[in-house]
Write a structure and sequence with these properties.
about 425 residues, alpha/beta, 9-stranded mixed β-sheet, two-stranded antiparallel ribbon
Length: about 425
């Protein structure tokens, strides 16, 4: 029926499974603390692509999965959530500003309508739901905001959409829970939080998932839940962090040290993890490249070796380690600065497709492999570090997606320069 209606006017009638006729309006009521019914919950088997290299490559989150972003003040939790809201491979974004400062929510409300959705070309705000619960609002509203957000997400999921929920932050929600529990004179648990804190967090995150929706049609939808946690002083032993870690399968631990060094996203690769890696390996192998999974493992190996070598360097000095160890340090630096570091304010670097991520890794790891072979054949490390192609590799992140063929040119240049250098050392690559 076309025309103008108020939200409580009858717009259609449907027959339910019992043969009874029900009149429907645009207004729907649902208790937000209760999950909406589903037909079947499915196993997540594909990633939610975010365009953030450190996430997609090292610590991916599955579509319909759950993730936590804990970190101290100033480490970039809100920036990470904003990037995910802008670029995540989701049809609908529900952003919950739970206990946020008023100026931060104002920035979101001003910025999002001006951003262009890369999928549709329209304003990003057209597929975004913002729940603004500022820190000066009543504590009961803060406690209800998280449930309101996940219920709205389920509403869109039931239509067959893939929804991403950004909760910023669950720590302030837990503080509201603690305050209400105190007013009700309930028995306090650890650090004054109610004893049922873990159960409430589990109830929230369990409502995420990829499901077959209830109804006669076979519709599949998903809700991916990503919660920021703001422990006091960045203490990861905080009860909210520990309770969250027992539930989520992806942990993006933010580091104040990385943030102070202006390395963003400041996700610490030494403490972060994703339990979806094994389940998603087949998808990455089929949709990106079979070598992509091996590259991911090799990158983590190089970064772990860097940590071990740096401990030795602090004890005995840089001059006492071998050329191979120094090459590993240089390669790890390339991975950190040229791959993991990403500029959210650069038009090209703010989002990176999976194919481009694979090509960037291929260049860095091929340089590492060829340099190791060259050292074995008598090449001098200082000459390897001064190759002109290294500058081009470092600037690969700024190559637009439309100029992806440049990667083949750089790869060929790398092979040629290595061949010329190794020939001087008496061998061939």
């Amino acid at each position: 029926m076309s025309g103008s209606y108020s939200v409580d006017e009858i717009i259609c009638s449907v027959e339910n499974d019992k043969g009874a006729t029900e009149n429907l309006s645009m207004l729907q009521k649902w208790p937000v603390r209760k999950g909406r019914p589903i037909k079947q919950k499915l196993t997540p088997d594909m990633p939610m692509v975010t365009g953030q290299r450190v996430i997609d490559t090292l610590f991916p989150v599955a579509r319909g999965g759950v993730a936590a972003v804990p970190g101290p003040f100033g480490s970039g939790k809100t920036v990470v959530q904003h990037q995910l809201a802008k670029w995540a491979d989701a049809d609908i974004i529900v952003y919950i500003g739970c206990g946020e400062r008023g100026n931060e929510m104002t920035d979101v409300l001003k910025e999002f309508p001006e951003l262009i959705d890369p999928k549709t070309g329209a304003s990003l705000m057209k597929r975004t739901v913002l729940i603004a619960n500022t820190s000066d609002m009543p504590v009961a509203a803060r406690e209800a905001s998280i449930y309101t957000g996940i219920t709205i997400a389920e509403y869109f999921r039931d239509m067959g959409y893939n929804v991403a929920v950004m909760a910023d932050s669950t720590s302030r929600w837990a503080e509201a829970l603690r305050e209400m529990s105190g007013r009700l004179e309930e028995m306090p648990g650890e650090e004054g939080y109610p004893a049922y804190l873990s159960a409430r967090l589990a109830e929230f995150y369990e409502r995420a998932g990829i499901v077959k929706t209830a109804g006669s049609k076979d519709i599949t939808g998903s809700v991916t839940a990503i919660g920021a946690v703001s422990p006091a002083g960045g203490d990861l032993s905080d009860p909210v962090v520990q309770a969250t870690l027992r539930i989520v399968k992806v942990f993006w631990g933010l580091s104040a040290q990385l943030a102070y060094r202006r390395h963003f996203p400041a996700i610490d690769w030494m403490i972060s993890y994703s339990l979806y890696n094994d389940k998603l390996s087949q998808w990455f192998g089929n949709k990106v490249n079979r070598e992509f999974v091996r590259f991911k493992e090799q990158v983590m190996s190089v970064l772990q070796q860097e940590s071990e070598i740096e401990e030795i360097v602090r004890l005995v000095g840089i001059d006492s380690i071998s050329d191979f160890d120094r090459l590993t340090l240089e390669t790890a630096k390339m991975i950190r600065e040229d791959f993991l570091h990403q500029n959210a304010f650069n038009e090209t670097d703010t989002f990176t497709s999976l194919n481009k991520q694979y090509l960037m890794l291929r260049l860095i790891l091929e340089y590492y492999r060829l340099s190791g072979d060259a050292i074995n054949k008598g090449a001098v490390l200082s000459e390897l570090l001064e190759l002109k192609v290294r500058e081009r590799i470092g600037r690969c992140k700024y190559i637009p997606e439309s100029h992806i063929k440049e990667f083949d040119e750089i790869f060929a240049e790398l092979k040629k320069e290595m061949k010329d250098l190794t020939a001087k050392g008496g061998g061939d690559v």
